[in-house]
Amino acid sequence: MSKSWYPVIDYSLCKECGACFNKCKNGVYEKKENHPVVVYPDGCVEGCHGCQNLCPVGAIQYVGDTTGKDDCGCGCCC
């Protein structure tokens, strides 16, 4: 888990579909008033793009992402 890699949600794009919340099994997100909120950024696996890949509107970026590639080896089927 990483403190230098975590998701940031662009709420101007987010459609509240829940894909990120449903995908992440590490407790990174909570739903608050139907909005996904990053509540545990330390739970995000460095290099994982799973939530970003599932977001239908591209509302998720990652702090620490310099490659744009999924190279985490986390096994989450990113």
TrEMBL record:
GO terms for molecular function: 4 iron, 4 sulfur cluster binding; metal ion binding. Keywords: 4Fe-4S, Iron, Iron-sulfur, Metal-binding. PROSITE patterns: 4FE4S_FER_2. InterPro entries: 4Fe4S_Fe-S-bd, Fe-S_Ferredoxin. Signal peptide: none annotated. The keyword Manganese does not apply. The keyword Endoplasmic reticulum does not apply. Residues 5-34, 35-65 form the 4Fe-4S ferredoxin-type domain. This is 4Fe-4S ferredoxin.
